[in-house]
Amino acid sequence: MRRTRRLLAVGATIACVAAIAPAASAGSRPHFTPGASGIGDPYFPLEGNGGYDAQHYDVDFSYDPATKRLDGTTYVTARATQDLSRFDLDLQQLDVSRVTVDGRDTKFTHNDPELVVTPRKGLPRNSRFVVAVTYGGVPQTVIGSPVVFGSPYGFVHTDDGAFIGDEPNAASTWFPSNDHPSDKAAFTFRVTVPKDLSVIANGRLASQRTQGDKATFVWDEKFPMATYLATADIGTWDFKSGRTPGGIPETVAVDPKLKGRDPNHPDPMAFFYDTTAEATDLWAKTFGPYAFDSTGAIADLATYQGRPIGFSLETQTRPLYSDVRNTTTIAHELAHQWYGDALSVRTWDNIWLNESFATYAQWLWDEKHGGMTIHDEAHAVYGAHSGTDPWWNVVIADPKRDTMFHNRVYSGGAMVLQFLREKIGDETFSTLLRTWYAQHKYGNVTTPEFTALAKKVSHQDLDAFFRTWLYSTGKPALPQA
């Protein structure tokens, strides 16, 4: 993120990081127990749930901008990771009318935001099941949280539809889920809207049809995706589809209201389409082959209660932009497709593995387009903050919940990556970034895993370097190469 302000067979997916109960001994009966009500994330302890691995979401809903009401059924295909007596899903504010497990009505309670589901009988460890939740109401936009700069986020109602950006904890404002990045899954979105509107979502368009005064769009994202990266934006769009010069399918949706808004980019479709194509191909050459089967953009001149929304987000395959007028933001969000989307954090305290890496890529983009070199950019960041500046009080590897999107995580972390590059050498650093991506693509990562790989690839003892630059406060002396 950068401040600018449905039952389906599922292919191979990546298992989530979840606590798995020991197997029952031979001949013994399963001991069914409840799944945990939270994943135990240090910043969001109740976000996510234990006892199962979500493998596919079919999010089927209708939305009417006139009433702002959403009605739908979400089907979650999952695998029990323990002998499971009951389990939770995350769902905020909306009313639940029915829950089934494998087609049978099931007891449930909704203690917002926890939807507690008790199947008729226990679910044995490693069994697959489908839970279907029917729900409705007016999705509530998250407002005033310091973790996203105070901007409204989640399901944001707009004049012509919806702008949906969920980082870090707002996917549950519009569909029931295991709402934590450690449990990635494939997605299908089936969205019905008034026929004069369209829907743009993650992945590739599978179908669209109009019946009466309604239109239904089906989008598929077959690759593992964290819930916060899901989007299904509704509005009046101009569309363009094709392929990047490197051959990657691309679809861009642009709000017609952007036309003529920026004299430097009078044709917003050309601006977003061409920049997206260039950046996607560049990062594929730099970091490794693109992990998904589509790229693109959603450019929405959206406001909430008369104010600009004020952020962009790396929604998987198709980043979401509010009123963006520079190529660096597009480069940043597309770099997240490698670092943040294909590689996702295991817990939110590892957020620098998303934001610092995307900021570093942004600097690389600038350098390649005649701007400041990455070396100079890193040293400028270092010099801009005196030793008494509280900027240095944020610990990059554990910035804390309310400062997890602090500038030190972004620019400060990118500075650290450049200093690491200067310490281990350009070629080794490039090998590190590409190996990091290749080894963990579609999975979840932590800072200790990265630092261990850096030491292995470089054949250097980097403990002091990382202790100083990632885990400490205060302004250190510049590192020696």
Description:
It is built from eight helices and 26 strands. With about 475 residues, it is an alpha+beta fold. It has two domains: about 1-335, Sandwich (Immunoglobulin-like), CATH 2.60.40.1730; about 350-470, Orthogonal Bundle (Neutral Protease, domain 2), CATH 1.10.390. The longest helix is centred in the middle third of the chain and has 20 residues, at about 270-285. The chain starts with a strand and ends in a 12-residue tail after the last helix.
Furnish the topology, listing elements before pairings:
Layout: E1 2-3, E2 33-34, E3 52-64, E4 69-80, E5 84-90, E6 95-101, E7 104-105, E8 107-111, E9 114-118, E10 128-137, E11 154-158, E12 161-165, E13 185-194, E14 198-201, E15 204-211, E16 214-225, E17 232-235, E18 238-243, E19 249-254, H1 268-287, E20 295-299, E21 303-304, E22 307-308, E23 311-312, E24 320-321, H2 327-335, E25 344-345, H3 352-368, H4 374-383, H5 407-424, H6 426-440, E26 444-445, H7 447-458, H8 463-469
Helix pairs in contact: 1-2, 2-3, 3-5, 4-5, 5-6, 6-7
Domain count: 2
What is the beta-strand fraction?
25-35%
Q: At the third CATH level, what is the topology name of the largest domain?
A: Immunoglobulin-like
What would the average pLDDT be, to the nearest integer? 93
Total beta strand runs: 26
User: What is the general shape?
Assistant: globular
The CATH class of the largest domain: Mainly Beta
Radius of gyration over all CA atoms, rounded:
22 Å
Q: Outline the low-pLDDT stretches.
A: 3-26
CATH superfamily of the largest domain: tricorn interacting facor f3 domain
- State the strand order across the main sheet: 7-6-10-4-3-13-16-15
Q: How many angstroms separate the termini?
A: 31 Å
- What is the count of DSSP helices, taking H or I runs of 4+ residues? 8
CATH architectural arrangement of the largest domain: Sandwich
Class inferred from helices and paired strands? alpha+beta
Q: Tell me roughly what share of residues is in helical segments.
A: 10-25%
